[in-house]
Design brief:
By secondary structure, the protein is mainly alpha-helical. Helices cover about 55% and strands about 10% of the residues. The chain has a three-stranded antiparallel β-sheet with strand order 1-2-3. α3 crosses α4, α4 crosses α9 and α5 packs across α7. The radius of gyration is 21 Å and the shape is globular. The protein starts with a helix and ends in a 16-residue tail after the last helix.
Length: about 240
């Protein structure tokens, strides 16, 4: 076991009985056979269970909807990406030469997947206890910063409920553009509100983030206009 991987195990708080599991967890599919996709699948399930247990124990009076929203904020790609950076995963990933040259080691989706794969690898190597302990150690410090945001409904949910309460059709989202290099892509998404002649735009590092921004912009337009509606005028080409 190389020194960098020994240092990673110290940061994880888990010494692997089977070092091959650790190596596989850090191997991207571009590298070849023996990559981490199956471990990522397993780690995602373990992460969801461990975070659910953490929230259930901390917030015993909260209902299912609130807990689900907070969990979604804790396990989203951006959070996993930031944790992966604190663990110094970029320098440890095994990538193809092409993927490495294109900046794959810094790509949020690849780092988030690698973190989930590590959780899955620890589960296989030591059982649920060590994997749960790692999740609690990594995510507990984020709770204070995440809870306030997580209790609130996300913009897409709030927009849909706002429209349904007024018997309006659900919003329609469409990817208008994908910009930037592969590892620095930004999505541009439009949110159309049928019947109100409204269209808003959002941008983000993922399609989901862009949709949330577009929904938030639509909500602001709908809520700030007197009467909670917008004039029936066609949106400008820039808004589309």
């Amino acid at each position: 076991m190389t020194q960098p991987l020994e240092a990673l195990q110290a940061r994880l708080g888990h010494a692997f009985a089977d070092p091959a599991l650790l190596e596989r967890a850090l191997t991207h599919k571009s590298f070849g056979a023996g990559h981490n996709e199956r471990l990522e699948f397993l780690g995602d399930a373990v992460l969801t269970a461990a975070v659910s247990g953490l929230l259930f124990g901390r917030f015993g009076q909260s209902d299912e909807g609130d807990l689900t929203r907070v969990r979604a904020h804790l396990v989203r790609e951006d959070t996993l990406y930031r944790i992966a950076l604190t663990l110094a995963l970029p320098g440890l990933l095994r990538l193809s030469e092409g993927e490495a040259r294109s900046g794959g080691a810094q790509r949020p989706s690849i780092l988030a997947d690698a973190l989930e794969a590590l959780i899955g690898a620890i589960y296989l190597d030591g059982g649920y206890g060590p994997a749960q302990a790692l999740v609690e150690r990594l995510f507990s410090p984020l709770l204070a910063a995440t809870v306030a945001e997580g209790w609130a409904k996300d913009a897409k949910t709030e927009l849909q409920e706002w429209l349904q309460a007024r018997r309006q059709p659900v919003p329609q989202y469409r990817v208008e553009a994908t910009e930037g290099r592969p590892h620095e892509q930004r999505f541009v998404v439009s949110c159309g509100v049928p019947g109100m002649n409204l269209s808003s735009r959002g941008e983000g590092r993922s399609r989901r983030a862009a949709e949330q921004e577009a929904a938030a912009a639509a909500l602001q337009a709908l809520k700030t206009h007197p009467g909670g509606t917008v004039p029936s005028t066609s949106p400008t080409p820039a808004a589309l």
